Amino acid sequence: MAPVIEARKLGMVYPDGTRAIEGVSFSVEEGESCAIIGPSGCGKTTLLFIFSGLLRPTEGIALIEGKEVVAPPKNAALILQNYGLFPWKTVIENAALGLEIRGVKARDARKAVKPILRELGLEGFENHYPKQLSGGMQQRVAFARALAIKPRIMLMDEPFSSLDALSREKLQNFLLELWMKERMTMLLVTHSIEEAVFLGKRIVVLSHRPGRVVKVIENPMAGSVEFRNRGEFFEKCREVRRSVGAT
Ligand SMILES: Nc1ncnc2c1ncn2[C@@H]1O[C@H](COP(=O)(O)OP(=O)(O)OP(=O)(O)O)[C@@H](O)[C@H]1O
């Protein structure tokens, strides 16, 4: 079966001549999770934006479900590091937005997101505005919006980077449990070695800019919340650290 996500020799040179990535190739099979890690400025966000259909690569091809990405892919949800919430919309309006954009009536969309907000611990906050929430809660609203469309693919750009350690760990656990239940295909950009090892069954290490694939590390032990506390987890973190350091 064809991979769900595939980068074929992707390259990106911005109009000002900045080369962000070069010859990046990797693939993610159906139901797998892949973490992209690399030093700051190596082109991780660029790569994710290409798969989200927000940027066209200048070289190579980005494929989702075997088709070249030329617009935001239908089955994919995008989660960004700064939550992407509209400040003038309430929690429930923000969460319902993804469904409304896909043509669901506002009333139905709000009804559909209520149980998801409940599951994410946001019951009682439906009519709050983002600025009245903590960072962790705002990111949960962003997750609710993404999950409401029942995505088969999740594209995430450092979704936990602006959270405190405890909220980050809780949401990482939530995402892992969700992935084990739903088995969506995930592409996660992160600069955290621990996060990559906890959530990525496959870890793609990029070099300094322009980002090139230095190594693809298989991480078959990922997939349980307890993995964090195991010796193998720390061993894998060391392996990834060595590769990132070598860039
Ligand atoms: N629109 C743009 N025009 C020119 N250069 C850009 C543009 N967007 C990004 N860049 C440059 O491309 C390179 C890669 O940026 P990108 O944001 O993809 O990296 P990153 O790995 O996500 O960085 P970080 O880890 O710091 O978030 C950087 O040098 C950045 O300055």
Automatic annotation (TrEMBL):
Transmembrane segments: none annotated. Residues 5-233 form the ABC transporter domain. SMART domains: AAA. The keyword Nucleotide-binding applies. Keywords: ATP-binding, Hydrolase, Nucleotide-binding, Transport. The keyword Transport applies. This is Taurine-transporting ATPase. It comes from Archaeoglobus veneficus (strain DSM 11195 / SNP6).
